[in-house]
């Protein structure tokens, strides 16, 4: 089990690297085909709408930090609770820092790779 | 035990489905039946329950459910959100559990719970992870 948690923590590190590189194509490989992301509370996005949102978000050059808070890992499904911050700019170009406690569900693919299937950055209130 | 399901429920092969309201109704009725062995059938062998305040799986989880439910605590829960992505669902609930303490006095646990459900190869949806965040009271207290 500790090997699985190590794999998942490595996966989070690689996600952070792809995010901070602004690489939308690389980031997409961290999600399942059916993945739901809730970048704005109460507004779940999936499919092309999710991809378009993430691409636009990354175009502003955001920088993310992610610190795992709790991990619950079964053989093929994981729930991760993550403290994160994102430094980015708003629509007027003013620097802003976003932060939250993310609730992420990952699934183990048949190729042995864990991918986000629910990405809920504001999933837990502080 | 007296069940009054408005939805399909097969005790031998329970299916929570990916419909949050159906899942909540089954979860509530089975919890409130006091039957820990049946409640455990809503979970997979390697599923993780944090109801006790610690992540439990397998035999330890079953033993906790049997003990915890034997005093017939009453669960109330309302779905706050539900996201279904392929064969996984993430659901949120507001919950309260009223029970009786060792000295016979009433106890109240309440908070929010995050549930992850997984669809099995046979099509049934079961709990993979539950994670209550208590606002008031802990089972371990």
Structural class of chain B: alpha+beta
Largest interface: A-B, 26 and 23 residues
Distance between the termini of chain A: 29 Å
CATH architecture of chain A: Roll
Q: What does the overall shape of chain B look like?
A: globular
InterPro entries (chain B): DUF4440 (IPR027843), NTF2-like_dom_sf (IPR032710)
Domain DUF4440 (chain B): 27-127
Pfam families (chain B): DUF4440
Organism (chain B): Streptomyces doudnae
Write the layout of secondary structure elements.
The complex is a heterodimer of chains A (126) and B (141).
Chain A: H1 2-20, H2 24-28, E1 31-40, E2 43-46, H3 47-58, E3 63-73, E4 77-89, E5 95-108, E6 114-124
Chain B: H1 20-33, H2 36-40, E1 43-49, H3 58-70, E2 74-85, E3 88-100, E4 106-119, E5 125-136
Parallel strand pairs in B: 1-5
Antiparallel strand pairs in B: 2-3, 3-4, 4-5
Tell me what the structure shows.
The complex is a heterodimer of chains A (126) and B (141). Chain A contains three helices and six strands. Chain A is of the alpha+beta class. The longest helix of chain A is centred in the first third of the chain and has 19 residues, at 2-20. Chain B is of the alpha+beta class and 141 residues long. Chain B has a single domain, classed as Nuclear Transport Factor 2, Chain: A. Chain B is built from three helices and five strands; from the N terminus they run H-H-E-H-E-E-E-E. A five-stranded mixed sheet of chain B has the order 1-5-4-3-2, with helices on one face. In chain B, a hairpin with a 2-residue loop joins strand 2 and strand 3. The model of chain B has no long low-confidence stretch (mean pLDDT 92).
Keywords:
heterodimer; A: 126 residues; alpha+beta; Nuclear Transport Factor 2, Chain: A; six-stranded mixed β-sheet; 6 strands; 29% helix; globular; B: 141 residues; five-stranded mixed β-sheet; 3 helices; 23% helix; 41% strand
């Amino acid at each position: 089990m500790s090997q699985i948690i190590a794999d998942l923590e490595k996966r989070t590190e690689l996600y952070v690297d792809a995010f901070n590189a602004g690489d939308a194509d690389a980031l997409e490989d961290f999600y399942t085909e059916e993945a739901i992301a809730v970048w704005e509370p109460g507004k779940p996005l999936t499919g092309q709408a999710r991809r378009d949102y993430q691409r636009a978000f990354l175009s502003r050059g955001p920088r993310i930090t992610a610190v795992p808070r709790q991990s619950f890992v079964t053989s093929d499904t994981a729930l991760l609770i993550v403290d994160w911050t994102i430094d980015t700019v708003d629509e007027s170009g003013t620097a802003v820092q976003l932060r939250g406690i993310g609730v992420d569900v990952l699934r183990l693919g048949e190729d042995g790779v864990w991918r986000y299937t629910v990405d809920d950055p504001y999933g837990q209130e502080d | 035990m007296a069940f009054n399901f408005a939805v399909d429920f097969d005790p031998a092969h329970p299916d929570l489905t990916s419909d949050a309201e159906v899942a909540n109704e089954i979860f509530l009725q089975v919890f409130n039946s006091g039957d820990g062995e049946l409640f455990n059938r809503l979970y997979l062998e390697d599923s993780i329950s944090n109801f006790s305040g610690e992540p439990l799986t397998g035999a330890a989880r079953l033993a906790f459910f049997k003990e915890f439910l034997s005093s017939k605590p009453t669960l109330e829960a309302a779905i706050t959100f539900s996201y279904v992505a392929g064969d996984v669902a993430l659901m949120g609930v507001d919950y309260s559990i009223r029970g009786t303490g060792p000295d016979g006095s009433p106890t109240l646990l309440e908070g929010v719970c995050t549930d992850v459900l997984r669809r099995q190869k046979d099509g049934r949806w079961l709990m993979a992870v539950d994670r209550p965040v208590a606002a008031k009271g802990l089972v371990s207290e």
